[in-house]
Design brief:
With about 450 residues, the chain is an alpha/beta fold. The protein has three domains: about 45 residues; about 250 residues, Pyrimidine Nucleoside Phosphorylase, Chain A, domain 2, CATH 3.40.1030; about 90 residues, Pyrimidine nucleoside phosphorylase-like, C-terminal domain (Aldehyde Oxidoreductase, domain 3). Helix content is about 45%, strand content about 15%. It has 16 helices and 13 strands. The protein has a four-stranded mixed sheet, with helices on both faces. The longest helix has 17 residues. The radius of gyration is 22 Å and the shape is globular. It binds uracil. Uracil (URA) binds next to helix 9.
């Protein structure tokens, strides 16, 4: 690599809307991970990239440079096609806890590296950490051993996975440069490729609780990631899904574990199950387990009915040292002791949910963290008793809030009350699956 670039020249080049070469992008990433390199120059380049964009070749180069900045998991000792899944981040989005055991029970080797929640969105690792004893800190060699044994592992990100993304994301977070399609695409794909997958199903959230608020930007992000995947020889399918309301009814860590278990037991229906099965079906197709979506959906449904999915969750919990009794005894999961109900003051139809703020209300109960070092309360959260479009009567309970203190339930209630609107006119919701790209 040519290291003789002058970084200021590169900033000026991007500022003037010119295209950076592969070597120039590699140099940018090399500087980003150099702890002695000034953050202000990296920020300046990120802002130039944010304002002027990157073409697909530049985005693919940035993706691969970030992937190669750290450890790349070698999953070749595991037989079969390794298909990963990633969500761009939503509220009550517990699809992984449903689709990972279900897909594994259908014969797909599932090596799932997941993250912790930050801001208004939750994270799979926090949900699993709410299961007593469950260990998410798994080394790469243990992950391979567990998948060979049970066909499934769900683990936190290893320390040295795409360190360039960690650095760039932390700068983007405080410099107003998060909402950029090439920067989001390269950030997500670099981590997934470093996690060793052969193929990837992406859940691109769209709506007021997502990064991508409108359909056109969700489409652009989805297309960019499918194209970049192709150019780096990874098959990517992107499913654009609705985030104009929380996906499930439960928001909060042990509460979401309970809801996922209910779905795996075949006791709950709704949008969360619908999205989990859609994403799971594309995982089975990419993994060459099924030829068509219909076949895959049938197989997943069957494994809910015959109990193989919930049995696989039990195996996962046991193999990662968790207490499997939680599956039949929810009182072994924590539930915070202060409870507050939100009561409807009028009859009508739920016509609007501010999903971002509902996620923030859940965070306020203690279920989420505001900074990455905050401790979370696994038993805190919100149970929504109704969905967008539901007809409700005055006096109906709309939601239950759980937290450790009355003050926290009150703070969450304030946000929640202003996040849900009721109107006299019936309200038609849009579908949960909006579009599929790359299938
Ligand atoms: N998720 C990521 O991993 N990166 C982004 O840039 C945005 C969402």
């Amino acid at each position: 690599m040519n290291t003789a670039f002058n970084f200021i020249d590169l900033i000026i080049k991007k500022r003037d809307n010119k295209t950076l070469t592969t070597d120039e992008i590699n140099y940018f990433v090399k500087c980003a991970v150099d702890k002695d390199f000034p953050d202000y120059q990296i920020s300046s380049m990120l802002m130039a990239m944010f304002l002027n964009g990157l073409d697909n070749r530049e985005t693919a180069d940035l993706t691969m440079a970030m992937t190669n900045s750290g450890e790349i998991l070698d999953l070749s000792p595991i037989e079969g096609i390794k298909v990963d899944k990633h969500s761009t981040g939503g509220v009550a989005d517990t699809t992984t806890l449903i689709l990972a055991p279900l897909a594994a029970s259908c014969g797909l080797p599932v090596v799932k590296m997941s993250g912790k929640g930050l801001g208004h969105t939750g994270g799979t690792i926090d949900k699993l950490d709410s299961i007593p004893g469950f260990n998410t800190e798994i080394s790469s060699s243990d992950a391979i051993r567990l998948v060979k044994k049970n066909n499934i592992v769900i683990m936190g990100q290893t320390q040295n996975l795409a360190p360039a993304d960690k650095k760039l994301y932390s700068i983007r977070d405080v410099t107003g440069t998060v909402e950029s399609i090439p920067l989001i695409a390269s950030s997500i794909l670099s981590k997934k490729i470093a996690a060793g997958c052969d193929a990837l199903v992406l859940d691109v959230k769209c709506g007021n609780g997502a990064f991508m608020k409108d359909f056109n930007s969700a489409m652009e992000l989805a297309k960019t990631m499918v194209d970049i995947g192709e150019s780096v020889k990874k098959k990517v399918i992107a499913v654009i899904t609705d985030m104009n309301e929380p996906l499930g009814k439960n928001i909060g860590n042990s509460l979401e574990v309970m809801e996922a278990i209910e779905i795996l037991k075949g006791k709950a229906e709704g949008r969360l199950k619908e999205v989990a099965l859609e994403l799971g079906a594309y995982m089975l197709i990419l993994g060459n387990i099924c030829a068509t979506k219909e076949e895959a959906r049938t197989k997943l449904e069957e494994n809910i009915k015959n109990g193989k999915g919930i049995e696989k969750l039990k195996e996962l919990i046991i193999s990662q040292n968790g207490n499997p009794e939680i599956i039949n005894n929810y009182s072994l999961l924590s539930l915070s002791s202060c409870k507050k109900e939100i009561i409807s003051e009028q009859s009508g139809y739920i016509s609007y949910m501010d999903t971002y703020n509902i996620g923030k209300a859940a965070s306020e109960t203690g279920a989420g963290r505001k900074t990455k070092d905050d401790k979370i309360d696994y038993g805190a959260g919100i149970i929504l008793k109704h969905s967008l479009g539901d007809k409700i009567e005055k006096g109906d309970v709309i939601a239950e809030i759980y937290a450790k203190t009355k003050e926290k339930t009150e703070n969450a209630a304030k946000i929640l009350n202003s996040s849900i609107k009721i109107s006299s006119e019936p309200f038609k919701t849009r579908k949960s699956i909006l579009k599929v790209i790359g299938a």
